[in-house]
Each structure stands twice: as C-alpha cells, then as structure tokens.
Amino acid sequence: MLNWYLENGKDSDVVISSRVRLARNIKEIPFINKVSKKNKEEVIKIVENIVPSIGYGLKLLKLKDMDDITKIELVEKNLISPEFALNYTEEKAILINEEENICIMINEEDHLRIQVFGSGLEIENIMNFAIEIDEKIGSLIHYAYHQKYGFLTSCPTNVGTGARASIMVHLPALTKTGNINKILEVVNNFGMNIRGIYGENSGSQGNIYQISTKQSLGISEKEIMKNIKLITEKIIEQERLARKYLSKDKLELEDKVYRSFGILSNCKKILSNECNELLSDIKLGTDLGIIQELTDLKVAKLRLYTKPANLQKFYGKKFDSYERDIKRAELIKQIIKE
Prior knowledge:
16% strand; 47% helix; single chain; alpha+beta; 8-stranded antiparallel sheet
C-alpha cells in the first residue's frame, strides 16, 4: 500500500493534501513555555506508557535518536514542523504509524499535537479520525480542560477545540494569470491563514500554498471543517477557471510545460528550487492531459524524492549540495523511465 502522500485523492489536480491537528496538554503539568526538562521527560514517559493501549500501529520515536537527515525528511513530508525539528532538545518525540498518516508531536508548542493526514480534499474523514484518536488518548490520560473555555493550550488562539485544519493546494494557473494575490487577500479576509508549504514564515515552493484555519474558541470541529472546505472549494473553482483561460492558448501552454519536462528529463544536475518550479509546470501539464509520459504516481514521487533529505534517504547516503544536484537529476530520469 502506498503512503498517503503518494496517493491521489479527491480534487487532487488542485488539492495536494489535507491535515487536522489537535492541540492537547496534560493536566497538572505546566505548559511547554514554562516546563522544566524534568516535566518534558515526564510527558514523554506518560505517553510512552500508554502507546500499547492507543493502538493504530503507533511507535514512539525520540528526536535525540534521529539524525538530521531523518528529521528534515519528516519536515519535507510535512509530518513535523521545522521549528520542532530544528529547535532541538532531547525531550522531544513523535508517535507515528507505518502509513505515516498519523504523526503526534510530543513537546512541540503543546504537550501533544495530534495530527492526521490524507491525500486530496479529505477534511471530514481525517477530522473524524483525529477525534477518534484523541478520545482514545483522552481515556488514558487527563487533559487540561476547562468547562467554559474547552481544551487549554499554551497559545490562547488554540484554546477551545484546540483544532486546526489545513489544506495544501497547487495554484500554478492563478499564479501565471496574475490573480494569486487576489486569492491570498480573499482567504485572509475570510479568517484563514495562507502560507508557504512549510507553514509560517515560509514562502511558496512550486506554487504550493497551505490554507489553515485560525479560530478554535467558540467554534465546533464541524464548523471548522465546513469553513475550510467552503473556501478551498472556491479556490479549486478559481484555479480550474484560470487553467481553462491558459488552455485557450494551447500552443503556448504546451510549449511551457514540455520545456519544463524537457529540462527535467535531460538535465545532468539541478537545484532543488529550480526543480520545484519545473515540477509545478509538469504537474499542471499532467493534470490537464498535456503530458502523457507521466502518471500521477510518478509526479508524486518526483515531488517527494527530489527534496534534499528525501533524496538522501532514497539513496541511503549523505551528499553535499553539489552531489545532491547531480543525484537529483539522475533520480528524475529513473522515476520517469519506471
């Protein structure tokens, strides 16, 4: 079975993935911004003791036992935040299953960040799954909870349900037609955040953006799902309209995507950023049926395995930046010819 990030989902021509995150803290242990090293160790120990009872094939992995490439690989898959990986302390861990559609960060901004992922627009299913996992964990440990305010979190904006939903979208046509800024403005005005692929303070890579909800207090999980699904469906509609507009000049569009395909197919070395931009054109061309040489699975593999850490994991070797550029070009040819 393929991992979720290599699968196709609903509306996957525009929507890359969906994620739900629930922020939870353990009662009577101080929040992360006030905890001692001993408190953090206690959080990990509490979670470690209940892992067999949680189920779902979850395993506890401590960050101190991971090398840097493994941590960055998880960031590139959007399973953990860059801050969690890079602001390194020994008192951090994750719970993760083999399919990697569940990843619970321990001692990030809260004691627990329960995350569930899915390919395409799948927000309802993964929200229900996240709640199921949350209720299982909640039956085994005591959460910090207030009758009036709901789940208590280190950041006031997460108080309430503690739930955040996010959708990763690919918007090449809106970018090429110059309408992307209007869309960004509408999303922000709708009470959502729209950021780069790796969240706050990161830019767009390959025309991929992350839309996420802001509010969790005074709003139910059902309303959170409804709001983000509504705005995402509007963005899908606008992106598809922009693609139709670009398709009016068929020759120009075909020339653009096949030039990108030609470079990727024949280059001897290529930088990561250039690869991301060319892959955006190639995904657009494949989704529109222009490029017949690639499948959706090959495009997903190209997007994942050309990233620096995943590239090194694929080969099982550590490379310097110049060697990575060469190996990236070799791997692209290998995947295309599969």
